[in-house]
Amino acid sequence: MKLTVIEPLRRGVSFKTAWAECRESATLLRYLTLRDLRLRFQDPLLGVLWVTLQPLLPAAVFATIFARILQPTTSGVPYSLFALAGFVPWTFFSTSVSTASMTFVWNANLLNKVYFPRAVLPASAMLASSVELMAGVVLVCGYSVFRGFPPRASWLLLPLLGLYVAAIAFFVSLGLATANALNRNVKFAIPFLMQVWIYASPVVYPSSFVPERSRWLLGLNPLTGALDGFRAALFGTPLNYRLLLLSLASAAAIALGSVLFFHRYEAFLAERA
Q1: Could you list the residue range(s) of the whole structural domain that residue 249 is in?
Q2: Which of 40, 146, 231, 237 holds its CA 20 to 30 A away from the CA of 269?
Q3: CB-based burial label for 183 (10 Å; 0-12, 13-18, 19+)
C-alpha cells in the first residue's frame, strides 16, 4: 500500500516537490476543467454563439471606426481581418485572466477542506477558456481564406503561439489570483488592468504604428510578440525580432515573479481566501 505523507507548508516546499505534486494532480485538473466547460456551455447554442461573437463584434466596431480615423498601415491586410487576428488571442487572454484570477476566492471552501496543488485552480480556468482560442483560430483562418489569404506552412506555428499566450495568461493569473486572495481589493483593479492592457498591446494597431524611438516600450509587453507572431504566421507580415525578444524576456520575468510570489504565499491561501 502506498503511503502519502502531507507535510505543513509554512516553511515552504522545494520547486521540485511542488512540480511533482502538480504532475500527480492531472486527474483533478482534468475534472475541474471539464466542470468549468460544462458550466460555460450549459446551453451549447448560446455558448458557441458567444465564443464566435466575442472576437467578431469588437473587430467589426474597430474596423468601422478606428480604421477610418487613424488609417493604420497593415501591410496589405484588410483591417477587419487584421483586427480579428488581434482580438482572437486577446479575447482568450482577457477571459482567462479575468476568470482564473478569481479562482482562489471562488473555491475558498475547497481550499479549506482538502489539500492539493493550488495552481491547479487557475490552470483549469485557463484550459477551459482555451476552447475559445481554438474556435477563434478556426474562425480567423476561415476568414483569411475568404479574404484571399490561402493556407500557408507558417499556419503550423499557430498552436505554438497559442501555447505561448496560454502560458502568459496562466502566470499572470497565478500572480493575480494570489494577490486577490491576500487582498480582496485586487479584484476591482483587474478590469481596469485589462482595459489599459488592450491599448498597450498591438491588438487594433500594428507595432509599426508606434514611433520608432518609443517602440521598445511596446516590446516590454509580453503579448506584443504573440500578437505580431499570430499575424506573421497568418499573413506573412514582417516580424520585428527585437520586439519579439523583448516580449519573450518580459514574459519570462513575469512568469518568474508570479511563481515566486505564489510560492511565497501558497501556504496561507486557505486561511486568506
Answers
A1: 15-272
A2: 40
A3: exposed
129 in Cβ contact with 99 (< 8 Å):
yes
Please give the tally of structural domains in the chain: 1
What mean pLDDT is predicted for residues 143-153? 92
Instruction: Give 248-265 as a DSSP string.
Output: HHHHHHHHHHHHHHHHHH
pTM of the model: 0.87
Asked if residue 240 belongs to a domain, the reply is yes
Query: In the prediction, which pLDDT does 48 show?
Result: 73
Q: What is the spatial distance between Cα 92 and Cα 204, in angstroms, rounded to a whole number?
A: 15
- The span from the CA of 21 to the CA of 13, in Å, is 11
**CB half-sphere exposure, 93, CA atoms < 13 A:** 27
d(CA 69, CA 98): 30
Q: What angle do CA 128, 247, 223 make, to 5 degrees?
A: 35
Per the model's pLDDT, the better-predicted residue between 7 and 133 turns out to be: 133
Residue 36 lies inside a defined structural domain of this protein: yes
pLDDT tens for each residue of 2-55:
555 555 444 455 556 666 666 667 888 888 888 888 887 777 777 777 778 788
**What 8-state DSSP symbol labels residue 200?**
T
Q: Would you say 247 and 169 are in contact if contact means Cβ atoms under 8 Å apart?
A: no
Neighbours of 3 (CB within 10 A): 4
Q: Largest Cα–Cα distance in the chain?
A: 70
Q: Please report the pLDDT score of residue 159 as a whole number.
A: 94
Q: Is residue 54 part of a domain?
A: yes
Could you count the other beta carbons within 10 Å of the beta carbon of residue 20? 13
